[in-house]
Amino acid sequence: MLAILERTRRVALREPPAQLMRFVWHVSGKHQVILCVLSAMVFLLATLPLELQRRLVNQATVGAPFEPLLWLAGLYLAAAMAEGGTKFVMNVYRGWVGEKAVRWLRRCIDRRVADKPDGTSASMMLSEAEPVAGFVAVSVSEPVLQIGLLGSVLGYLLFLQPKMAAVSILILVPQTVLVPFVQRAVNERIAKRIAVTREIGAGLVTGKKRGPLSILINRVFDLNFTIYKLKYGLNFSMNALHHVGTAAVLGVGGWLVVNGQTEIGTVVAFVTGLAKVRDPWSDVINWFRDLSATKTRYKLLAKALGGAC
Predict the structure, then answer these.
(1) Which CATH number characterizes residue 67's domain?
(2) How many Cβ atoms from other residues are within 10 Å of residue 94's Cβ?
(3) N or C: which end of the chain has fewer CB within 10 A?
């Protein structure tokens, strides 16, 4: 019975699933669980350096004893190294999982089109397999990590000073509107670009061209350039909002310090916390963009493969 189940599983793995996340689970199910555990360890360690930094700044006053400062500095270094070391292990593991998925998908393409190689199969093998299968490495652990970081850091800041935390959270709201709007436009152009590059590949291999290749090459150039403008325009907007948030926190924090409602160490912790929020928030947005774009790519790839590998 076990042998039959194992044989069934192997057969199933030789077929490209119709949906991206099923493909992810097929090629890396148990590894995703381990990556999620490592992600949880990273975001649980994330707020410790912030608290130690706050205590260091508040402790460093004229005439204060030096030994407690030395202990706090040592603890800060240990916490930062523990967080960085765990993240290093997680990233190396992610790279290994991603490369295994790329290898599996390329072998799948090779088996499926070995008897009828053409431009489309070359495009799938060389340029389409890597971004699709490469997404496997971050498909589950990345949102777990980044949302966990956001939750832990924002929760800590909210506990520390609700007024300043409210300002920080408000800065994130406009981005939730911008990202889906821009990504829809990017996805449309990605799908068109894949179709054009496959047509170029087919023309080069078979010699059958509906027109000059220069027209198709220019079309790819135009699509890529439009994608760049959309992506970097969104990045510019996000960076601008981050700086607005930092200025607002410094202003509100300075007012609270002057009026004796908070400590200077809290303001320093908030500025550092905003930087810690910026990266995971940007990474969540990038993950959403990658997920959306990869779904588009995978749908076209699975449709082209059509059957068992």
Answers:
(1) 1.20.1560.10
(2) 20
(3) N
